[in-house]
Amino acid sequence: MGELFEVREFETIVGNKEFKNQYRYLDKDTFADLIEFIHAFDSDEEESDVLDFIKIGYKRNVGETVTFKNYVGLIQMKNNYQIQVLPKIDFAAGEQDQTKQIFLRMLRSMKDFPSKVFSNANLKIDRMNLYEIYINMYLQEVRQLVKHGLKSAYVGVEDNLTVYKGKLMVNEHIKHNMAHQERFYVGYDEYQMNRAENRLVKSTLLKLQKITTSAENSKAIRQLLTSFELIEPSTNYDKDFSKVVIDRNTRDYEMLMKWSKVFLKNKSFTTFSGTESARALLFPMEKVFEAYVAQNMKKVFGRAGWNVSAQDKGHYLFNTLNGETHRKFALRPDLVVTRDDDSVVILDTKWKNLINDRRANYGISQADMYQMYAYSKKYNTSEIWLLYPVNDAMRNVGPIKFDSGDGVTVSLYFVDVANIETNMEELLSLLRHRE
User: Containing H/E element for 62?
Assistant: First the structure.
């Protein structure tokens, strides 16, 4: 699939060879292709801008720079050059760097991420780039489908037969059978596996067969295609996707259809899509971090009998407009914890590296603090927590608690994503022994 360039989130990439020892360096032509790729990205939403997440900057004497901010994953450009962006995760002294493994574990916590049967044990993670890993996930899902059996459905068929069945297609019958009175051009329903879902899966397998460079994935694709011999590949992706309905009988296809759309239409898990000659699979780390914390918090706090609600929608900043009931400006804290005594704690996750500088408020956004204050007042709780990923600068910093003086406290907690369950046990203990 081409040469692989690996970079960490927030690292700066340059195309100026003179500064290759100070920044991450790409040769001039590839760097220009990357700039072109970023500008060619399409946004599905008017309010979204790829430049908010992949920042193009300029440094004097250095020239243009590119920084990936809060989005990680893999980009394959039109020249097949790949850029793999991994999250910035700081490990404690003595711990092995397992960024890729932890990132994949975090991805599995996302509600919309197609990874129902994904298992780290089945992957040669160190030998595969992210795109090959995603392909392997898809193949695991197809393998499960084949194991359970491909679903059949009644499919509309038109054919020129020597026996009459179904409905006579009058215009086609006259066109084809003026000299063949023994034939009937008919339309009828036939129960077969050549349904939209199976066509899309076969098309995806055929596409992945062309782009994979992994011997393991290539072998698996060849084996799986034997189960699709009687199925035609899709000739109109949009038309077939429009026919897909996930219900009790087609639940085995739910994850596969999400993956197929990613691979066949070059879609990403962001709101952005690449051109036909380039593809990207990018993930918003803010959402990944939130989902990962929520999943593990529910597991640990649930054992203690506490309820954890993610993205709560129960409150609005304003409830009336000109004296009439109009709920405006929804408040949606990432996590709302209800203890066994019915008291409430609000927790918000922020994928941001803080700095150990009290005078700079540790790098905390003023807007975030206003938001926490609003949560406190609307949810009638004095306990607000901001959860940040731990970094080397903040690993050994003591407790940090802001007090408004009118009954609102905002405490900081630093999450070590490499030891998430231990962290959640510690956080549970802190909330149990509140002052």
Answer: none
3-state secondary structure (DSSP) of residue 395: coil
pTM, 2 dp: 0.75
**Cα 90 versus chain centre, distance:** 22
In the chain, the amino acid numbered 303 is R
CA 248/CA 14 separation, integer angstroms: 51
Work out whether the CA dihedral 70, 74, 77, 81 comes out positive or negative.
positive
Count of helix runs (H) and strand runs (E) in the chain:
11, 21
Tokens standing for residue 51 = 């430049």
pLDDT tens-place values along the chain, 435 residues long: 567 888 999 999 999 999 999 999 999 988 998 888 887 764 444 444 555 678 889 999 999 999 988 888 888 777 778 888 999 999 988 787 888 889 888 887 876 665 444 444 444 555 667 778 888 888 988 998 999 999 877 667 787 877 787 788 878 887 888 888 778 888 877 667 888 999 999 999 999 999 888 888 999 999 999 999 989 999 999 999 998 988 888 888 988 898 898 888 866 554 344 444 456 677 888 989 999 999 999 999 999 999 999 887 778 788 777 777 777 888 889 999 998 888 999 999 999 999 999 999 999 999 999 999 999 998 999 899 999 999 999 998 988 999 999 999 999 999 999 999 999 999 999 998 764
The C-alpha atoms of residue 297 and residue 428 are separated, in whole angstroms, by 9
